[in-house]
Amino acid sequence: MLTKRIIPCLDIKNGRTVKGVNFIDLRDAGDPVELAAKYAETGADELVFLDISATEERRKTLADLVLRVAEKINIPFTVGGGISSVEDVDILLQNGADKVSINSSAVKNPKLINELAAKFGSQCVVVAIDAKQINGKWTVHLVGGKVPTDLDLFEWAQEVESRGAGEILFTSMDHDGTKAGFADEALARLSELLNIPVIASGGAGTMQHFTDTFTSGKADAALAASVFHFHEIDIPLLKLELKSKNIPIRL
């Protein structure tokens, strides 16, 4: 059985790590390069960097930040935010990123998924999906959760897989920053529908939430931000806890 992965997420705005609740009310959480180095040393399996101002303000993810991070860590990391072309991805990979995450650009131009998978391989392509429940339906949102679409989460996830994505990063906007647990029911349905890994995002608050998302939610990886940034959950202790629950994890 493949080991489950613990992935700290660093939301970047103006070169700093920030964290909010339900995608708003941002507060500073530190220098991203220093945080990345700390997480690599303390047992994180991967890292995700999302330039949350890039899509909104039409800026490109800073390649020099990627380069500085790559020099400091020895674990895989994914970069997202404002990526809309093969050229964007080429620059990020050349500067040391292992994978890229696309979100709004994939919805606006689904063929981009095919192009990136063909050029760089599916293992490089993570499609991030932000969704929340509206009238009982999981609806995909864009631009940091500000713009609703007509897309259904599950139908879009299946299309994304068919176009060559290597992983899905699903963030429940209803759960994001609440520390009330992941959207395990939706995650389990995604895992049953798809043949590619699903990363759970949004809602981590306790160690039990990670256990739940790996068991009930059938997630392949769990991503969190504030509980790690603000030292509410210690990754080495979390991994020991998961191991004690017979969840396959890399210590």
TrEMBL record:
One MF annotation (Gene Ontology) recorded for this entry: imidazoleglycerol-phosphate synthase activity
InterPro entries referenced in this protein's UniProt entry, alphabetically: Aldolase_TIM (IPR013785), His_biosynth (IPR006062), HisF (IPR004651), IGPS_HisA/HisF (IPR050064), RibuloseP-bd_barrel (IPR011060)
Keyword annotations: Amino-acid biosynthesis, Cytoplasm, Histidine biosynthesis, Lyase
Pathway assigned in UniProt: Amino-acid biosynthesis; L-histidine biosynthesis; L-histidine from 5-phospho-alpha-D-ribose 1-diphosphate: step 5/9
A GO CC term attached to the entry: cytoplasm
Catalytic activity as recorded in UniProt: 5-[(5-phospho-1-deoxy-D-ribulos-1-ylimino)methylamino]-1-(5-phospho-beta-D-ribosyl)imidazole-4-carboxamide + L-glutamine = D-erythro-1-(imidazol-4-yl)glycerol 3-phosphate + 5-amino-1-(5-phospho-beta-D-ribosyl)imidazole-4-carboxamide + L-glutamate + H(+)
Subcellular location: Cytoplasm
Record EC number: 4.3.2.10
Pfam family, one: His_biosynth
Active site (catalytic residues): 11, 130
Coarse class of the protein's main subcellular location: cytoplasm
Domain of life: Bacteria
GO biological processes: L-histidine biosynthetic process
Summary of subunit composition and partner proteins: Heterodimer of HisH and HisF.
HAMAP family named in the record: HisF (MF_01013)
Function: IGPS catalyzes the conversion of PRFAR and glutamine to IGP, AICAR and glutamate. The HisF subunit catalyzes the cyclization activity that produces IGP and AICAR from PRFAR using the ammonia provided by the HisH subunit.
Family: Belongs to the HisA/HisF family.
Name of the protein this chain belongs to: Imidazole glycerol phosphate synthase subunit HisF
Name of encoding gene: hisF
